[in-house]
Design brief:
Layout (H helix, E strand, L loop, with lengths): L2 E6 L8 H14 L3 E6 L5 H5 L6 H11 L3 E9 L2 E2 L1 H7 L11 E8 L7 H12 L4 E2 L3 E4 L3 E4 L2 E4 L1 H22 L10
Parallel strand pairs: 1-2, 1-3, 3-5, 5-6, 5-7
Antiparallel strand pairs: 3-4, 8-9
Helix pairs in contact: 1-6
Length: 187
């Protein structure tokens, strides 16, 4: 079964960012893709802050990530960059943890002024972690995700943008599973 890991760099589960996570999980479920969510703020804080790569909990999550065909990164955008919470987890990943995976990043910010934060701040780090198939990131404004009494509502335009990228993710994962190469690596 196809597995995708969702890494969430929010500081709580009530963050509107989790509206994007919930919506993405729902769509992936419709595709019959198994998802696992890593809420970074719930990982052992001491291990993250000291970059204790020997911590058993971190190792367990890193192993789950290694077994995934796809990795989605969700982050709030603060002051033109991704969250420090997310950075603490990315720092404890093995050097090429995202190699041979389809990677997709989604960011949630307060204004259009931070539209390129994912491209300029997060994507270079993801590439350093071995990402070869990085889909175009999706930046979403906070007011496009509404917090409801029983969850979140994601704006229709945002859902369409996410759906287009998820279609690409599914296609690329299926090609990888069939052994079809989209390009040759230049060594």
């Amino acid at each position: 079964m196809t597995k995708v890991t969702l890494i969430v760099g929010a500081n709580s589960t009530s963050s509107r960012l989790n509206g994007l996570v919930e919506y993405t999980q729902k769509v992936l479920f419709d595709y019959k893709i198994q998802t696992q969510v890593i809420q970074v703020h719930m990982l052992p804080h001491q291990a993250l802050l000291t970059a204790d790569v020997m911590d058993k909990t971190l190792q367990k999550y890193n192993e789950q990530l290694a077994a995934s065909e796809g990795v989605f990164i969700f982050t709030p955008i603060f002051k033109g960059s991704y969250s420090g919470i997310l950075k603490t987890y990315l720092d404890v990943l093995p050097q090429k943890a995202l190699a041979n995976k389809v990677v997709y990043a989604l960011g949630l910010g307060g204004s259009q002024h931070h539209l390129l934060a994912l491209q300029y701040a997060l994507e270079p780090v993801l590439k350093e972690l071995g990402t070869e198939e990085l889909l175009q990131s999706t930046y979403v404004l906070q007011d496009q995700v509404t917090k409801e009494e029983r969850g979140f509502t994601v704006n229709e335009t945002v859902r369409q943008r996410i759906n287009q990228q998820l279609d690409q993710v599914i296609q690329r994962i299926e090609l990888k599973q069939q052994g079809v190469r989209r390009w040759e690596k230049i060594v």
